[in-house]
Amino acid sequence: MEMPLIVTILGNFGFPVMIAIYLLIRFEKRIENLTEAITRLQQAMKNKL
C-alpha cells in the first residue's frame, strides 16, 4: 500500500472510530450512574408505600 492511501484510509475511518470509542467510554459511566440513581429511586418509592 502506498503511504498516501494509508493516510487517507486512517483519515476517513480511523478518526471517526476513535471518536465513537471515546464517546462510548464516556457515556458508559454516565449510564451506570443513571442506573444506580433509578435503582435508589425505586427502593425509596417501595419504602414509602
From TrEMBL:
Q: Which residues cross the membrane?
A: 6-25
- Keywords assigned by UniProt, alphabetized: Membrane, Transmembrane, Transmembrane helix
Pfam families for the chain: YvrJ
- What protein name applies here? YvrJ family protein
Q: Which organism is it from?
A: Sutcliffiella horikoshii
